[in-house]
Amino acid sequence: MNEPTHDGVSRRRILYGTAAMGAAALLPVPSARAAEAKRRVAVLGGGMSGLAAAHELVERGFEVTVFERKALGGKARSIPVAGTGKGGRRDLQGEHGFRFFPGFYRNVPDTMRRIPVEGNANGVHDNMFPLTSTRIARNGGRSDIITPDFSGSGGGFDLASLQETLTGVVEQAGAIPPDELALFVNRFIVYMTSSDERRLGQWENVPWWEYVRAEGKSRDYQAIVARFLTRGLVAVKEEVASTKTVGAMGQAFVLSGLGLGADGAIARMLNGPTNEAWIDPWVDYLRGRGVRFEVGQTAEALEVSSGRITSVRLVDGAGRRRTAEADWFISAMPVERARALLSPDVLALDPSLEALKDLHTEWMNGLQLFLRRTPDGIGQEVNFMDSPWQITAVLQSKLWDRDIPAGYGDGNVLDTLSLDISDWDTPGILFGKPAKQCSPAQVVKEAWAQMKDHLEDTGRSVLPDDLLHSWFLDPAITWDPAAGRSSNDEPLMVNTVGSWKNRPHPRTEVPNLFMAGDFVRTSVDLATMEGANESGRAAVNALLDAAGSPAAKVQVWPLYQPPELDGLKDLDAHRFRAGQRNLFDTM
């Protein structure tokens, strides 16, 4: 029988411990240089997830090199329009799509606070500000709904806007039959009270169109509840979009509007071009901490030996190839690029990664319209709800805190209308073709026509043709005249029904390979800046575990879940396991 010591630890355990320490003393002690040699990390991709991973790693003492094929910042970056700056002005600024920061983002804002900017107490975070005015535009002579601009930049909320908004609210309230409104409220309550088990086990496999029972409903119900909430907001088609994903986004928006689980206002924008307001200060900070950036280097293959990744093969724009070694590798590329690295040797180490080939991408790209004047009747942001291409737009003069004609272009561009085109597959109203089958010039004319169809359907003039100075389409879109269609070098991963099972964990079965990117499993569960940032944090935490690092784990914020609903969700978990419907699923 073991005799306890005075602190309750047996003498036998003390003897065992003493023996173990003696044995350890006979083993070689790793040198500081050997320990340091295990801290080299290659981050493959310099977009949102790659920069987030590099940020967390370098602050924990790792030696980080970021390899990026195109430009740092990924889809969030600004894209200067080469040759447009005259007289000492900077080039006009293009975008893959304008930057929008919902209030429920928590991980991205945390990173932004930690990027120092001279004069900003909260770093880059202070370059965000609340969106104060928006217009939900309808066509067919229907009145729009306009939220007031209390910022002082929009000239206040005039009587005409008030009249239009009140009329629009009444019209929209009457457009959807009461029984359909009740149905949608019921579906929202069902989702809010559904357990995680039901969301993943049932709603993940149900299309949003089916979940909200849009078939046979009114045109406005289908346009607003089914189509706009999917194609307009998350660039997925309502017939194949996962209810788990669309429902989670809807819940997050509603809760953040109530101030629950929110970092700030329900919608925020940057006060300048993305690179100037965010990406450039970020890269400068990381470079100052020791991160190395190698831009123009495409990760072509991962080289495997002894069950680990030993190096990455890189190719530059001239076709020159080389290899780069590291101890740890984080793939932080979009899914279509990450798939290219999954050689038979890599898949032999982690066969589950084969499922990445089943993930789906769609197009959501930007178009900038450079204007000679600031148009009347457009606030900070406009949703063209009935547009076939699901267009949303922001007016830069209402967002940026800088003089556009004095600072950019040739001095004749006074404003920029920056568009996101979310649906590239539905025929337009001018040429009768989807955006994918339109030349760049046709894309511009079609988008202009769809906006006029909403803004000028009551007889006013908002977008006269002489307003347009020039335009810039996301260069990821490449037109092939012979084929009569475009290709897209930077598509967006979308959450189709049942796709969760095909998405990887941050830690793979390859001992020194980790996955980051907006397609990795995250709480946000959507291809967004927030999802990419969260995945970069999760990949770093997995690497810290694998490396046995004593560094503090990276904080990760999941989507907020109201604790007041825990009881109903626990009940629903029991009902789901018993094969029963949600308690409120009665309609």
UniProtKB/TrEMBL annotation:
Which PROSITE patterns does the annotation name? TAT
Question: What sequence ranges are listed for the domain Amine oxidase?
Answer: 48-544
Q: Which domain of life is it from?
A: Bacteria
The UniProt entry, under SUPFAM superfamilies, shows: FAD/NAD(P)-binding domain
Q: Which InterPro entries match?
A: Amino_oxidase, FAD/NAD-bd_sf, TAT_signal, Zeta_carotene_desat/Oxidored
Check the record and name the PANTHER family matching this protein. Answer: AMINE OXIDASE (PTHR42923:SF46), PROTOPORPHYRINOGEN OXIDASE (PTHR42923)
Could you tell me what this protein is called?
FAD-dependent oxidoreductase
Q: Which organism is it from?
A: Actinomadura monticuli
